[in-house]
Design brief:
This protein has 17 helices and 12 strands. It has 498 residues and is of the alpha/beta class. Pyridoxal-5'-phosphate binds next to helix 5.
Length: 498
């Protein structure tokens, strides 16, 4: 497909600007352009077609099944958009005085109350803008807490399992802690024997996702909590997988002291490609004094921002955090109401249904009921037919599905991490399972089909690492001839007026 610049023809226009009879403002000589900018010149129908074609090539949760494990790509209810676009929310300036932003403050306060209830911890800060920022904030709270107790120099280590999401070790390092890895046992739980030898007076805390990135609920969670709390360390819960347990169990009840939420996953939000997200944190009473400021507090019937927290770690985000995400999450939770538990139950049911359909063809490394997602291994296809997990993922695109997360968690060879979410119908799950089984059959009978996939997508295999590390997002004008003389007077004049 051509770029819009390549479709440009001199003189074509998609709109005409009014030309008011006003004098052109005097622009100082040194600030004037020497030549007009090379904007694409294109008619309106061509422009509409161009962007429609781009949109048609884009895959999203609104176009198809998107079982990207760990990312919780669930349907985004349209009511959220209605609510977030109410003028009182949409047009509110972040510096609006408190008296005139009571509605927004009340919404934030109510969201805090709900989140506290969902995880069973009393104090919440909505400020962090992503799960990873919630992690960093939580670890900074840990540091502030131990520093205050005079244990800052002693407690230098944070323990994380080998299944952890990549942001966990990154946050630990960014917070200035030393990382201590712990193994996974043959049932997919944290290896308790390995753990016991690694926790002591030098330990500041644990970071754990439960259910883990294997999609398994850790059966030793009570013992894990005992080990950490006996050594005076704190427990951090990575709440990215909260979609599995809402209304069923609460991290606060099984001993965690700090939790982050991924609002954009659990409570819906169009996300991906870097945002927008929300990563609030919830903590026990003893950590509350260190939370970021301002805190949103209620006094009688009014709501206000409280900056009077002498022990606070400070601000981690501009203003109060990503407000639009709060409105959507609040709308989402309120529309579920008491049925929030059903959301998690159906997410778990859907995942187990798919697992049951696929585990005989693709290997399930841990033969257990899964939570909201599960991990398969494609190593048999690789060993027997030379077809890799990457090939399976690419071939799924030909069948019209977004591939699952692949090659993660790192401890499962040829991993496929599948998260269907609660919003998918049985027919969709069946169509996906049928495609996965069909690809396994192709691997045995026509391995070149998956190996050379995708066949019916606009682009074939891309160098994804290079695309991520050296993205070309700029049209290189210097490599393309000017379609017409630079600095053409009529154009320049029009530009000045615009
Ligand atoms: C288990 C887990 N932890 C943390 C994160 C980080 O969350 P975010 O992408 O919002 O920074 C993710 C994101 O996918 C995750 O899956």
């Amino acid at each position: 497909m051509k770029l819009v610049y390549e479709k440009s023809k001199p003189g074509r226009r998609a709109s005409s600007l009014p030309r008011p009879e006003l004098p052109a403002p005097e622009v100082p000589e040194e600030l004037r352009r020497a030549s007009p900018p090379r904007l694409p010149e294109i008619s309106e129908p061509e422009l509409v077609r161009h962007f429609t074609a781009l949109a048609d090539r884009t895959f999203g949760i609104d176009t198809g099944f998107y079982p990207l494990g760990s990312c919780t790509m669930k349907h985004n209810p349209r009511v959220n958009e209605r609510v977030v676009n109410l003028p009182g929310f949409r047009d509110l300036h972040p510096l609006q005085e408190e008296d005139a932003s009571q509605g927004a403050l009340e919404l934030m306060w109510r969201l805090q109350e709900i989140l506290a209830e969902v995880v069973g911890l009393p104090a919440v800060s909505l400020q962090p803008a992503a799960g990873s920022q919630g992690e960093l904030t939580g670890l900074l709270l840990m540091r502030a807490y131990f520093a205050d107790r005079g244990e800052g120099d002693q407690r230098r280590e944070v323990v994380i399992p080998d299944t952890a999401h990549g942001t966990n070790p990154a946050s630990v390092t960014m917070a200035g802690y030393e990382l201590v890895g712990v193994k996974t046992d043959p049932r997919g739980n944290v290896d308790l024997d390995d753990l016991r030898g690694k926790v002591g007076p030098q330990t500041a805390g644990l970071m754990l996702t439960n259910p883990s990135t294997l999609g398994l609920f850790d059966e030793g969670i009570e013992e894990i909590t005992r080990i950490f709390h006996e050594s005076g360390a704190l427990m951090y819960y990575d709440g990215a997988n909260l979609n599995a347990i809402c209304g069923i169990s609460r991290p606060g009840d099984f001993g965690f002291d700090i939790v982050h939420f991924n609002l954009h996953k659990t409570f819906s939000q169009p996300h991906g490609g870097g945002g927008p997200g929300g990563g609030p944190i919830a903590v026990r009473e003893r950590l509350e004094p260190y939370l970021p400021v301002p805190a949103v507090v209620r006094e009688g019937d009014t709501f206000r921002l409280d900056y009077e927290r002498p022990k606070t770690i400070g601000k981690v985000r501009g203003f109060c955090g990503p407000f639009g995400v709060f409105v959507r999450s609040y709308a989402y939770i309120r529309s579920y109401g008491p049925a929030l538990r059903e959301m998690s139950e159906v997410a778990v049911l859907n995942a187990n249904y798919l697992l049951a359909r696929l585990k005989d063809t693709y290997e399930a490394p841990f033969d257990r009921l899964c939570m909201h997602e599960f991990v398969l291994s494609g190593r048999r296809l690789k060993r027997e037919h030379g077809v890799t997990t990457l090939d399976v993922a690419k071939r799924l695109m030909d069948y019209g599905f977004h591939p699952p997360t692949i090659y993660f968690p790192l401890i499962v060879p040829e991993a496929l991490m599948i998260e269907p979410t609660e919003t998918e119908a049985k027919e969709t799950l069946d169509a996906f399972a049928d495609a996965m089984l069909e690809i396994a059959r192709e691997a045995a009978e026509q391995p070149e089909l998956p190996k050379e996939a995708p066949h019916v997508r606009p682009v074939k295999r891309l160098d994804e690492v290079r695309a991520a590390k050296q993205p070309v997002v700029r049209y290189r004008f210097e490599q393309h001839e000017e379609p017409h003389g630079a600095g053409e007077p009529r154009q320049l004049e029009a530009q000045k007026r615009a």
